[in-house]
Design goal:
By secondary structure, the protein is α/β, with parallel strands linked by helices. The protein has two domains: 144 residues, Aspartate/ornithine carbamoyltransferase (Rossmann fold, 3-Layer(aba) Sandwich), CATH 3.40.50; 144 residues, Aspartate/ornithine carbamoyltransferase (Rossmann fold), CATH 3.40.50. The protein has a five-stranded parallel β-sheet, covered by helices on one side. It has a four-stranded parallel β-sheet with strand order 2-1-3-4, with helices on both faces. α1 packs across α12. The protein is globular.
Length: 302
């Protein structure tokens, strides 16, 4: 069993992960030990730079009683120094699971194909499933229920957008994407495209954005700044959503581009709760993959 994209799972699985993630957070707040992954080791491959992904997995695994090993992309040479299939079979002899933050989703799929331990997608060019778990956990904490909510994602139809749409479909959240023509998500899923951001955010419960230029797209930055000029999430745009609408951002944010400082620092912004929830959501994923017996025990329990 792997965690490569959220729609590999059913709605009930995702809701259970959110339930267990909330319980993990409660245990941390109470200061109660929960070392359910004692003697487990997570190998972490990073082909792309990371702050939240590395820290949240390392601290979360430690809290669960396990250990992590950090592996830089250039050290392992995925598919260059050594075939992906060989790396998968070697790592499977050493670690209990592999988390990989990769340039290519195809490499993650190949790694999972040959690995005999669970593989977790920490980010790829197509998906960011761990982020989407944190996103919905944050919304659930604030709104208390997910079904029937409306979420508007504003910006590039990227990996974060893809996973947000997929998880929204699974938990009953209506998704609207506001982006310039040519930047729409290429995804077989249920969502609306509304190019005008002001029209797109009217009456929504959640407004979500991400950077306009992701890692690896630096050469496109000048053009993207022009194309996304009208898509900054500012106070005016927030005022068109519901009065109690939430603002979310997966971070890092470039203040003054995709979002204004005033929105980031407003009472409607939950971006730092969202960042914290990466750790709790990922702990739920780790338990699902490495100690499903304990995971099931936690589901529905106090």
């Amino acid at each position: 069993m792997h965690f490569l994209k959220v729609n590999d799972y059913k709605s009930v699985d995702i809701l259970e992960m959110l339930d267990v993630a909330a319980k993990m957070k409660t245990l941390v707040k109470k200061g109660e030990e929960h070392k359910y992954l004692a003697d487990k080791t997570l190998g972490m491959i990073f082909e792309k730079a990371s702050n939240r992904t590395r820290l949240s997995f390392e601290v979360g695994t430690y809290q669960l009683g396990g250990k992590t090993i950090y592996i830089q992309g250039q050290e392992i040479g995925l598919g260059v120094r050594e075939p992906v299939a060989d790396i998968a079979r070697v790592l499977s002899r050493y670690v209990s699971a592999v988390m990989i933050r990769a340039k290519s989703h195809a490499d993650i799929e190949e790694l999972a194909k040959y690995a005999t331990v669970p593989v977790i997608n920490g980010l790829s060019d197509l998906y960011h499933p761990c982020q989407s778990i944190a996103d919905m956990l944050t919304v659930l904490e604030v709104k208390k229920s997910l079904s029937g909510l409306k979420c508007c994602y504003i910006g590039d139809g990227n990996n974060v957008c893809n996973s947000l749409i997929l998880i929204a479909n699974l938990v009953g959240v209506e998704m609207i994407v506001a982006c310039p023509k040519g930047y729409e998500p290429q995804l077989d899923a249920d969502f609306k495209i509304i190019n005008d951001p002001k029209e797109a955010v009217r009456g929504v419960d959640v407004i979500y954005t991400d950077v306009w230029t992701s890692m690896g797209q630096e050469e496109e930055r000048a053009q993207r700044l022009k194309d996304f000029e009208a898509y900054t999430v500012n106070d005016e745009l927030m005022s068109l959503a519901k009065p109690d609408a939430m603002f979310l951002h997966c971070l890092p944010a470039i203040r003054g581009e995709e979002v204004t400082d005033s929105v980031m620092e407003s009472s409607q912004s939950y971006v730092f709760d969202q960042a914290e929830n990466r750790m709790h959501g990922q702990k739920a994923v780790l338990l699902k993959l490495l100690n499903n017996e304990k995971f099931k025990e936690l589901v529905g329990g106090e």
